[in-house]
Amino acid sequence: MPLYRDEAIVLRTHKLGEADRIATLLTRANGKVRAVVKGVRRTSSRFGARLEPFSHVDLQLATGRTLDVVTQAVSISAYGEGIVNDYARYTTGTVLLETTDRLVVEEKEPATQHHLLLAGALRVLSTGEREPALVLDSFLLRALAISGYAPSFGDCARCGEEGPHRAFNPAAGGVVCATCRPPASAMPAPTTVTHLAALLTGDWPTALQADPRTRREATSLIAAFFTYHQDHQLRSLPHLDLTPRANPAQATQ
């Protein structure tokens, strides 16, 4: 079977037979790949814990008819070590993985931007540099943007009239002017719109200045926008624990 190498993040796994597993991977060059990991559930497996969810690995794979086969695995970053023992980080991490799995639909189609975004989010989440809630909100906005659903937080999403605008409507694509505003549009505070724009662009100095009320309002708008454009709720969302907590890394920013 032809061999190829790629780096990948493990999105999920499930059992196959008595000793094998099927791993769903997001690779840097080949997009989503489903591959068999033979003998990984045996205590003597040479793969050990390198192919668990959250793992960032360098792989050699053999191309198969329906599923590829992992033949070598070298750890790049074990993000799971900083995630699985903290409930807030873990529940956030599962949403990151599930979101990516849902947004990257086609297998073997390049998804380099999604791969880089996920790797960066898992790194920040595992180190505790940002609160899990901020990591998640920024990730959801940016993942949607990569997939072609970028919300507008400046000019009107319908007519392009220069902002700022007060109304926000998921179906319209973000903020809208008074003329284009559909019925039942949300009317977030101006500070919330600024916060949303900062999360989308990765402007962390601005995003970190938001107070808890602003963050909560932004989170609800992001959830509404995501649910509308994906037409489903993620299975992992109800388990989230995003209780604000002190973070020394943020306090020094």
UniProtKB/TrEMBL annotation:
Pfam families: RecO_C, RecO_N. Keywords: DNA damage, DNA recombination, DNA repair. It comes from the Bacteria. Signal peptide: none annotated. Residues 1-78 form the DNA replication/recombination mediator RecO N-terminal domain. The keyword Hydrolase does not apply. SUPFAM superfamilies: ArfGap/RecO-like zinc finger (SSF57863), Nucleic acid-binding proteins (SSF50249). InterPro entries: ARFGAP/RecO, DNA_rep/recomb_RecO_N, NA-bd_OB-fold, RecO, RecO_C. Involved in DNA repair and RecF pathway recombination. HAMAP family: RecO. Belongs to the RecO family. PANTHER family: DNA REPAIR PROTEIN RECO. NCBIfam families: reco. This is DNA repair protein RecO. It comes from Kribbella yunnanensis. The gene is recO.
